[in-house]
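Input chain follows. Return C-alpha cells only.
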Amino acid sequence: MLSAFILGLVLGGLWIRRRLDRIDRPLRYAGYVQVLMGVCAMSTLPLYNLSFDFMGFMIGSLSKNDGGYTLPQEQLSASEAGYLLTAGTIRPRRKRCWKLLAIVSNRSVSRQCTYSFSCGKSARTPRCSILLQETSLMSKLRAFSIHLIASVIIFLVFLGIMFWVWYPPPYFAIDGGWVVLRVLASVDVVVGPLLTLILFKPGKPGLKFDMSCIILMQLGALIYGGTTIYQQRPAFVVFSVDRFTTVPAAEVEFDKLKYPELQRHFGIGPLFAQAPLPDDFQQQQDLLFGVLLEGQKDLEFRAEFYKPYQPDLAQLRTRSIDLKKIAVLNENAKIAIEAFVAQHEGRLEGYFYLPLRGKHKDIVMVLSSKDGMPVGSIDISPWLGDY
C-alpha cells in the first residue's frame, strides 16, 4: 500500500510540474483533480476484487519455513526504494534557458529556428515554438516505441520459456500461471514504456538516472515474478490412490527423494511419479491421523513416498471416470468430450480417464489403455458433484 501511495505521488508530481505555469484558475483545477481522484478510486474496486487470486498465489508460493517471507520483503523494500529515488528527481518547475542545440536535433528545424535563446527575453517565433514542440513529441514517441518493442520482445521470450519449458499444456491453466503473468505484463509491457513516454525529454538533466530507474523497476519485477513462477512450476505429477496431482517445486523436499531417476533438476515439464500407500498398516494409520489431526502433508506431497511411475492397468481401469455420465449432465462438457473423441480415433473405450488436480483447477487426465501413459487431457471438471 505504501509503495502504491508513493508511486502515485511520483507520477502525479511528474505530470503536474509541466502544467503549473499554464493553469489560470488553480482552485477550479484542484476541484477537477479531486473529482478525478474520486472516480479513479471507485474504478479500483473491481481491480481490488481481482487481487485476491493474485495474493493467494503469492502467499501459496512462500516456503513453509522461517525464511519464507524474505523474498517478498526484499522485493517490497526494493520497489519502495525505486519509487523514492524516482521521487527525488522531481524538482519544482523553473524557467530555464536551453541552448538551441540541446533542444533542436533536426536540421530542417534548425534552419527555420535561427534565433538563439538567452536567459533574458526569448526571441523565438510562434512557428519555431511549434516546431520545437513537435520535435520533442517525436523524440518522446520514438523513445516510447523503442522501449515498448524491447519490452514486448523480452516478455515474449519469457512467455515462451513459461509455456514450453516450465508449464507445458495443460499445467499453465490449472496451476494459475495467468495470475502472476498478468501483473508482469502490466509492469513490463505497459507501465515501463508509459513512464518513458512521460519522463523522456531530450537534453533533460537527470534523464539517464530516470531511465535507469525505470529499467531497474522492470528488471526487478521480471526477476521477482520469474522467480516466483519458476518456484511454483509443477515439478511432479503424482498418482496416488485414484487421481493425479500436480506438485509445485516449492513444496517438494528434493533431498528426501529415494530414486535417482526422480532427481532431475532441469527439463521440460513435470516428471510423473506415484505415491502408493505404505505396506505397513501402522504407517498407514500414522499417515492418516497426521493428515487429519495434525495438518501434515498428504501422501502426494511427501517426497519420501515417491516412486517412478509404473502404471497398474487394472487399478487405472477400476478408477477410470465414466465420461458418459458427465456428458449427460452438462452440454459444455459433452462438447469437450466429443472434440477429444474426434481427435482420437472416434472412441472413448480405448482410454482411461482420471482426475488431474491442479492448484487452481481440476481437469480430466487421459491415459492410454495399452500402457497407462498420459496421452492428453480434457478441460472439464472430473467431479460429478460439480455438475
